Amino acid sequence: MTKVTGDTFRLGILGGGQLGRMFIQEAANFDVQVHILDESSNGPAGQLATSFTKGDITNYEDVFNFGKSLDLLTVEIENVNIKALFDLEKIGLKVFPQPHVLSTIKDKGTQKEFYRKHNLPTSEFQFLDKNTPISELEKRIPFVQKLRTGGYDGRGVQLIKNSDDLLNAFTEPSIAEDLIDFEKELSVIVARNERGETAVFPTVECEFNDANLVEYLFSPADVSEEIEKKAESLAIDVINAFEMVGILAVEMFLTKDGDILVNEVAPRPHNSGHHTIECNITSQFEQHLRSIVNWPLGSTEIEKQGVMLNVLGASGCVGSTIYAGLDELIKIPGVYPHLYGKSTTKPNRKMGHITIAANTMEEAKEKAERVKHIMRVISE
Question: Deepest in the core among 71, 262, 377, 380, taking most CB within 10 A?
């Protein structure tokens, strides 16, 4: 087993948000010290890090100078300076996920081309830019338009349903994807270490709100054994095709014909894996740690049925964060709030999540419906 414990091993993360925070909380159980590069020391991860370096994760010098003092570097978001990561890799730093993986995935266009090249099932698509004729776009209606870079948490995605919607279409480089008539939106978290060993978490089912953010997650997904096997097998195929080290969230469509298509992926811990902290033997954050330090991967077995819901900033609330209803919430057994430590809130900002663990999905869903109406994130 690789020696990574104690203060002689330096593991760094680019980004100081909630994903880094939850990773640090798990890493602390193994006495693994984590160092953060981010612009804000008051961010969720910076509050808990062994050390914090102020810097821009998209800036070459900031990333390179931070990385060259480390033994291992990982990310909590794809929008980082890839050239610096390639150069750090050249001087011997282990970077996981690898720069070539991040380079492909951060651009939704090259990501889609990757699936096509490796015969991984996905929807049909077309590249768009400001010069794409309107007449050509009208032929594709209805379709989903996605910015090639910069989209995150539902931003940079819009549904083009009619000609009027084209008036507000993105003019930046983007892709137009066929609108899929799907039965369910699924997600599978899969991990791979340097030895090429893989471990896959059971498939979950996601329901999205109007802001294109996950409103509910159900674990396990209500799918047949055949669909479960197909989804897990596809996730393993995807991470092996990338030859990626780390944890990968593979978002999928289950079509009404019973086919499974890759929607898009995230090469890091993901919103669709938060429930694993309470509901599975190994959490996605511990699994990410295990994979990037080349430890044996942990069991992904489900211990409890689970529902996860995001805690979002309430409409019309901008300012200092107040968690209204928390006292009432924590009276309910099996309910686990995770508050991200963000000092200010705004509408639809991810401020935390709540996992409801139970012996049956019926019980978990019943509690989740109650929880949804108890706590609100408001401002002073």
Answer: 377
Mean pLDDT of 326-338: 94
Please say whether the dihedral angle defined by the alpha carbons of residues 146, 177, 83 and 40, taken in this order, is positive or negative.
Answer: positive
Question: 210 pLDDT exceeds 80?
Answer: no
Structure tokens at 172: 């930046």
The confidence score (pLDDT) of residue 6 equals 72
Domain boundaries, the chain: 6-95, 124-178, 182-379
pLDDT value of residue 192: 98
**Domain at 124-178, CATH homologous superfamily:** ATP-grasp fold, A domain (3.30.1490.20)
Q: β-pairing, 204-208 with 182-192?
A: antiparallel
| CATH number for the segment(s) 6-95 | 3.40.50.20
What's the Cα-to-Cα distance from 35 to each of 18, 40, 43, 80, rounded to whole Å? 14, 13, 13, 16
The per-residue pLDDT for 136 is: 83
The string of pLDDT tens digits covering residues 305-327 is 999 999 999 988 999 999 999 99
Where does residue 283 rank: exposed (0-12), middle (13-18), buried (19+ CB within 10 A)?
buried
- Measured CA angle at 250 (ends 249, 252), to 5 deg: 140
Architecture of the domain whose range is 182-379: 2-Layer Sandwich (3.30)
